[in-house]
Design brief:
The structure is a single chain. It is built from ten helices and seven strands. The strands form two sheets. A five-stranded parallel beta sheet has the order 2-1-5-6-7, with helices on both faces. Strand 5, helix 6 and strand 6 form a beta-alpha-beta unit. The protein has a single domain, classed as Rossmann fold (3-Layer(aba) Sandwich), CATH 3.40.50.12640. The two termini are 34 Å apart. Bound molecules: ligand PTJ. Ligand PTJ binds next to helix 2 and helix 4.
């Protein structure tokens, strides 16, 4: 039992929740280590949304709203941390939600789909095909989902799928606390923010943005600037860590 007055209560409660999700087979053990890496970068970012991340979240909303076939790709960690938040984003953006796993088994696919549906997400299902040139199972996706997508949101992603999706001409948005990751550098737009802060912010922008704002925001941004600002934020925090 974690006492609510513990200074790291939220972090410990999330870990406990993810450990339970791992026992249930929703999150993998590898997913727990991926979460630890994310936590470390979040610590370095001050565990808050930076102005640059907020701008990226606004652009992400514009990209989703201006897409013909927006898709949100959900893995085990994303479902465990943010199933209800994904429902809100789906409702606000009109995006299709597809489950896509690195450690893919039919049991995990079914459990994650059920968790999402229980939280109100409409999950696209069907017969998966190997539509991406990858040797692992992230290649498996649905023709009417990721196959058709022009804009794909891939939170907590692996670099090679991100590159493969970009090479197919899709606009790829990622949420990744590590601004140095291959995914962060390969994506068209990287939101360097924690998943459960980023998703509600994108949802809110989807509700607020209209017409010309959507068109203007979805053009003419430079992902390197967002990465540079995140690296600058981390560097400044480290320089003043012991002040
Ligand atoms: O459920 P599966 O089988 O599809 O597997 C999912 C994981 C996450 C295990 C898989 O995609 C993976 O191994 O991912 P990586 O390559 O570790 O990349 C995950 C990235 O997400 C890392 O750069 C982490 O820093 C980052 N990250 C982890 N937790 C969060 C995060 N970024 C934002 N918010 C988080 N909560």
């Amino acid at each position: 039992m974690i006492p609510e007055d513990h200074p790291r209560y939220r972090s410990l409660a999330v870990r406990e929740h993810l450990a339970r999700c791992a026992q249930e087979g929703i999150v993998t053990l590898e997913g727990l280590t991926a979460h630890g890496r994310g936590e470390a970068f979040d610590y370095l970012m001050g565990e808050e949304t930076s102005p640059a991340a907020l701008r990226a979240e606004q652009i992400a909303a514009a990209l989703l709203l201006s897409a013909e076939h927006p898709v949100i790709s959900v893995n085990g960690n994303t479902a465990a941390l943010a199933a209800g938040l994904i429902a809100g984003l789906q409702e606000a953006s009109g995006a299709t939600v597809e489950v896509n796993l690195f450690h893919r088994t039919s049991a995990r696919m079914a459990k994650i789909t059920r968790l999402l549906e229980d939280q109100g997400v409409r999950v696209l299902t069907g017969v998966p095909e190997r539509l991406l040139p990858l040797s692992h199972d992230r290649a498996l996706c649905l023709r009417a989902g990721i196959g058709l997508a022009d804009v794909v949101l891939v939170p907590l992603e692996d670099g090679d799928r991100c590159q493969a999706l970009c090479a197919m001409g899709k606009t790829v948005i990622t949420i990744d606390l590590n601004p140095l990751s291959r995914t962060a550098r390969a994506a068209d737009l990287t939101i360097v923010d924690e998943l459960t802060r980023a998703v509600p912010a994108i949802t809110q922008f989807c509700r607020e943005l209209h017409g010309r704002e959507v068109t203007t925001l979805s053009k003419g941004f430079d992902n390197r600037e967002f990465l540079q600002e995140a690296i600058g934020d981390i560097t400044r925090r480290l320089e003043h860590a012991l002040d």
